[in-house]
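Need tokens for this chain, all 733 residues.
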Amino acid sequence: METITSTVARNDNPGGSPQHHPSRGLDDENWLNRWRRPAGARAVALGIVILAAIVAIGMIVYWTGGTVYVWAHLMYVPIILAAAVFGIYGGAAAGLLGAFIIGPFMPLNVAEGTPQTLSNWLFRVFFFPFVGMLCGFLSKVLNERIDLLKEANAEQRKAAEAIALFRALIDHANDAIEVVDPESGRILDVNEKASKIHGYARNEYQALNIFEINPLFNNPGGKSWEVHVGELRRLGSLVFESEHRRKDGSIFPVEINASYIRHERDYILAVVRDITERKRADQRIHQLNRVYAVLSGINELIVRERDTQKLFEGACRIAVEKGGVRLAWIGLLKDPAQPIQLAAHAGASPDTLAALQRVFTGPGCAFTKSALETGKHAVCNDVEHSPEAAPWRALALERGYRSLVSLPLNVDGRRAGVFNIYAGEEEFFDADELRLLDELAADISFAMEVNQQEIERKRAEEELERHRHHLEDLVRERTTDLEKTRDDLAKAKDAAESANRAKSTFLANMSHEIRTPMNAILGFSQLLDRNSPLNEQQRKYLGTIRNSGEHLLDLINDILEMSKIETGQITLRPGPFNIHRLLMDVESLFHFRTDAKQLRFGIEIAPGVPDFITADEGKLRQVLINLVGNAVKFTESGEITVTASPDGTGNRLRIAVRDTGPGIGVEERPRLFQSFEQASAGHRAGGTGLGLAISREFIRLMGGEIHVESELGKGSNFWFEVPVETAAPVAVA
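Here are the structure tokens for all 733 residues:
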């Protein structure tokens, strides 16, 4: 790896030459280290000494003026060798010292006939030390050079090991790594991961240009390579998403973490991560969120709406607005021998509707026909290539329809119609979505059945009322028909009660049907949040799914509670409890919400309210939570106060919740405590209209009554009185 490894080799040696410590004189080293010098260094030093001895003898002969004393002067050789040895193994100072010690004390008359002059003596005194010092200096220089060569070889080995280690590290990295020339875009080096995910051999990859790998750099509509390089030069590093092309031509999404490196030349180091799975997770979360929005919106509409036509129109509108589809329509099959009649639609122009009425609802639509015949959904995820879509393919493609699903609506065991949804993308409907859509179609079918029963119940009630008035006028004349009329009335009453029971059954069954897929959605959302590497935006989507799911489950619980009330399944469970602690618990429950809205929130307990009372704590707590929750929801500024006080007899407890919210008009107050009814402020803030109805039934069950006092623009005061008994203190867990 030319670029990366050369950088590593120079990290330990910025100057480009082997590092070494500042030179130290050999005189400050001990003798033992001298003897450990390499044999080659000693041999070279001794050779220099012998050469120096020969030269010295020649000089002596020359200076003494003749050759007759040559052999006599050989006596100087031991002195020279001694000085040299001292210098080689002890340093320049030791060689100098040895020569001074030995040289002057050699006998003057070492050979017969040797001139005994003062100059000869001085020559020995100064020449021999010079030879010893010279040998020590030469030995020092040679040893230092050998040390430098050793250090250079060691550093080269370390650099080679570092290069090999770095090469192994990047080849074992989990992400692809590329080194690119910023000027030409040529790929200088890659690791094994880059070769693997792109399908190239390393040598093939290194022969490519970045434009052959990243098609977006040549896309006129995107950022060019030059723009990216300019940003990298300015910022130093850059993280962005892009696309790469494999050897087989397939395109896959990547996240690129690029760094601009300036050394002897400029490089771009890019860490490339394949984010295909992350993109799939994003898409899956988006799909779940989309289906949930449709499911939640239509089921809330089912709970609230009793008009079947409005239910159909709302269901189509929600499917288009929240489901991201192009067209949704509901057709009814009143007579199997007749074509389907369009009942409601959303997302289509008038000319499209006319064409759909002719083509899609007729025998040419194989999917609608299949749904009606089999009672199961029929799906087409590729209109352009599906053979069954051939009769109306041109019409569909012209209007941008690429996928569709036809959902049968079954009422009382017969095919009552279809709910058709058309999307603008291929492969729009997957198996999980189809299961949820099947349940949605079943809920709409059940709502149709219940609404039909409700219509029949109202007809029966109207008939009953007509009979009642008619009987007052004809009682004397129709005495003989009284028994028959009574039978009719009994049947009508049974029909009304049956319809009411069916309504409660519908609410319970519908709540169960919603709870099952909702728990699955919440469960999978938690699994995705816990086990998937998601970014902040993805976790925000998951948070939206969870919060909305929990809201829908609360709605289901309210519906079930109301159903139990209507069927008489709610009973009192009185027991002793601490009323002061209950009020403090309510304050703690709403403390963060009131702080977030900067509202003053207080609990006022009048003297005379006992610590412990006997009543149904759970129902009293639920009523307080409903009333305080409404006050917090509708109050934007000011304060909320909960007061508790005894009445004059001490046998009843009065609790009031007062707020400074928008207030309630006089004309709206009679509807406040009816099921699914809300004031105008409630419609704006959202909700189901069940909280006050449930609270009134609980208070009545406890023997009390709930009241409201309100003035527009000043706030509201909800209060109730319930009979209580003072209880002995009990231990509270």
